[in-house]
Every structure is written in structure tokens, then in C-alpha cells.
Fold:
Amino acid sequence: MSTMEHQYSENVVEKLSSEPKYFWKRFIIFLVILGLVIWGNTGSNFNGITEKGMNVAKAIVSGITHPETLLLFNLTSKGIPMLLLETISIAFLGTLIGAILAIPFAFLSATNIVPKWVSIIFRSITMLIRTIPALVWALIWIRVTGPGAFCGVVTQSIASIGMVSKMYITAIENLDTGVLEALDACGCNLFEKIRVGIIPQLSASFISTAIYRFDINLKDATILGIVGAGGIGFPLTDAIANARWNRVGAFVICLVLLVIVIEWISTQIRARLAHGRK
Structure:
């Protein structure tokens, strides 16, 4: 070994030996996590699968592999095409309204736009909205609007405000203020600064966030239908309750295909927005 290689290896050993030792810290963290896992498992008692449960599982698999095809081509209000269209409409309108309502909340919550006390108030409101699950919002609004698709739209609009406004706030607080200062120097008024300096910076982020929320709302629309908020959720629950597994299989297959298609489309749109392609 040459002198240079020997010196290099000594430097490596010296560097490694001078690094801080985290063994005990990591060991304690491991013990804490292990203790939490053990404590969490004490509340879940698995007594095995009963014979009845096994029969139900076989029936579910049989229903998925042998779906009720008549539902796929039933164009009435009880057919899968119309129920899926209603589910998509609820998710789309809920996302659109929620995304629009989130804009003023976001601007009034951004610390670089409004005074800090105003920001704290509106951040607290959006935090409160995020705290309440969408299913709870549905149970609340169904008492006001009654069951149906309108309840689903209102629920998803309110539930969307919390998450969407949080993402909007991040985008607003990351604005390039140099552009606004340049527009000020050019003598632009407030409307011109918003149109030229703010909207171009925020539009891609806002649209991407709205599309991401639409993905979430599309999945939530099925769950909200269980409590009567429109969409495919209630017929699916009814089929499960009556053990009509062939019908359940048709619902599940169509939902999976719908989610895959919507996910692919939204991913393509977000990728184009991220890379500035049209």
C-alpha cells in the first residue's frame, strides 16, 4: 500500500471514529416503537375465521369473478352507468365548488398577504374543517338537505375546503415577490398585478391541487353514498346487506376500473402542469 493510500485509509477511519454515536438513541426509539406495536396489538383479538365467514369470503370472490352483467348495460337510474355518472358528478361539483371557496380562505390565511392575527383566525377555521371527517359532514348535512346527490355535493364542497386551502396557502406563501415589485415599479395597479404577477404563478399549483382533491372525492363519494348522500354507495351497501354478491362484484369491478382511468388521466394532467407542457 502506498503512502497516499495509507494516509487516505487513516483519514477515513479517523472520520468514522469522530462521528457521533447514535446507538443508544436509536435503541431507545426502537424499544418505544416496539412497545407501541405490542400495546396496539392488545386491543385486536383474532380468533380465526369461522365457517360462516369463509363461506361469505368464497361468495364475494365468486361474485367478483361472476358479476351481474345486466347491471352494466342498464341505462336506467338503477343501472351502474347512471350511478357511476352520478358519483363522478358529485365528486366533480364538490371539488369545483370547494376549490373555488378555498381561494379566499387561502389568501386570508397567508402570512405574506394579510396581518398575522387575520391569518391565525382563518387558519383555525380551515383546521377545524379538516378535523371533521367527510362522513361526519355528510351525517350533519343530510339533516339539513335530506338524502340525495345534493347532500353529497355540499358535503364534499365543505370537506374539500380544509385540505385544498392548506395546499393553496403553501403556494401563495412561496410567491416570487420580485415579480410584484417589478410590476409596482412599472406602475401597475392591483388588478394588473393579480392578473400578470400572481395568477400565472399560482394557476398550475391550484389546478394540480384541485385534480388531486378530485381523486380523493371520487373515492369518498362511494363512502358518502352509504349514508344516503347519493352515488353508487347506497346500492352497493344494499347489495352487500342482502348478500347479492354477483351485484356486488359488478359494482366493485366498475369502481376499480373507474378509479384506474381517473387516476391515469389526472396523473397525465398533473405531469403536464408540472413540466409546463400543453
